[in-house]
Amino acid sequence: xxxxxxxxxxxxxxxxxAACGSSSxxxxxxxxxxxxxxxxxxxxxxxxxxVVGICQFVQHVALDSATQGFKDALTEALGDKVSFRExxxxxxxxxxxxxxxxxxxxxxxxxxxxxxxxLQAAATATSANPIPxxxxxxxxxxxxxDIDDFSGTTGVNISGTSDLAPLADQADMFAELLPEAxxxxxxYCSAEPNSVYQAKVVKERLEANGYTVKVYTFADSNELxxxxxxxxxxxxxxxxxxxxxxxxxxxxxxxxxxxxAGIPIICGEEGICxxxxxxxxxxxxxxxxxxxxxxxxRILTEGEDVSAxxxxxxxxxxxxxxxxxxxxxxxxxxxxxEAIA
Length: 341
Description:
By secondary structure, the protein is an alpha/beta fold. The chain folds into two domains: 50-163 and 284-310, Rossmann fold, CATH 3.40.50; 167-282 and 318-339, Response regulator (Rossmann fold), CATH 3.40.50. It has helices spanning 2-46, 61-78, 93-106, 116-125, 141-144, 167-177, 193-208, 224-233, 245-248, 251-261, 270-276, 285-302, 323-329; strands at 50-56, 82-88, 110-114, 133-138, 158-162, 183-189, 212-218, 238-241, 265-267, 279-282, 312-313, 318-321, 338-339. The strands form two sheets. The chain has a seven-stranded mixed sheet with strand order 7-6-8-9-10-12-13, sandwiched between helices. It has a six-stranded parallel sheet with strand order 2-1-3-4-5-11, with helices on both faces. β12 (318-321), α13 and β13 form a beta-alpha-beta unit. α2 runs parallel beside α12, α6 (167-177) crosses α7 (193-208) and α10 crosses α11. It is elongated, with a radius of gyration of 32 Å. The termini are far apart.
């Protein structure tokens, strides 16, 4: 009997020990499962970065300044949480499309399109995949995007900043600076919709002011020298060049013809004026880029709806002049103008 009791007690102790061991083995993994996700979440948040694609139509001072301002504003706000995929189309419109399609394939977080051809390419590339697009150095968004009755917002995945200066005031500079001029030639690239728009507005204003106006267009930089030569040889007292990317990338070519012919040029922006013009009423392209960058920060970090964002403008255009060229042509500039550095 005693032997039987001892066996029963021994079995009871074995069962109890087995139960304790089983409880210990199942508790440990549960504790590990509960703590692992909590440790991983902050690490993932810290690694989040934004990738911004930049498509610049062509390299020249104005567009370069806008791109730099854009990058500086984003970097100041986001630091190393933003990286850039920067591409330049070298003045080739189809290349803009290739660049923007690549950005879409790479699923960048935002596209900055610098100049009208880049904006149009970005609009086409994102039509089926509405990545936010911000334009800059774009004169008139309604014209660029073929929006009737444009009211300040696009209603699609696009917004940005405009480099539109007061065109009527630019036209009025001819009377202020060149009072003897009677015939004005307008020179622009016919492949740039915003140049077409500006030329139309300025032409109407000049004709309302009593000038005879002749229009000279070129399709690309290869035609530029011949077209400028024609404009200088056909009885024009002065020329007007709007904000035009092709002209901006070839100001030396223009000046090599116009200055020896003694033909002064009033320009749509400072970069062109510095290369071949006597004066301009110009916006600050670096500041325009900064404003575009601040819009990007609001989209990326605050989730602001790009389709409802108003197009922004430079509120303070400045009258500037090219001191060296004015001196060479014997033109006196009023004190209200600022010399281009």
